[in-house]
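Hi V.,

You were right to ask for the full record rather than a summary. Here it is.
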Amino acid sequence: MKVKFYLVLSILITTFSFAQEKKKEKAKFNQELATSLGADQYGMKAYTIVMLTTGNTKIDDKTKMSEVMKGHMANIGRLADEEKIIVAGPFLEKNKENYRGMFIFNTKSKEEAEQWVKTDPAVQAGVFSYEIFPWYGSAALPLYLKHHDEISKENP
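Predicted structure:
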């Protein structure tokens, strides 16, 4: 029994060692890509996060609310096409801060992010309000968008 245990343990240790070795291999630095993404020496850059919160307006008319939300989604698509917004999505559960969703804008300017968020029909209608925060993250973040269409069968 002890021999079996040590054999299994040895195999696991060897497997994890190889996994660690593979993990340590670092991709070759690409200066052209880093520059095109605005990366600093750490591969990071400044963004602006907008937290959408529950607004002061409640729209009970389902048709009207549907139109507002269609406009909200179209606006997100437009901002993504213009490379202004790089992340957008709702929160999946209620929270005490009344955060409904978030945007990550490809700007370090809070003023510019506010101009962009004010183009949202749901914000204009008062369904959503917002809070704005500076944020520091991977400069490669915008790259995921080019692959999103490859993995989504439908657009919301």
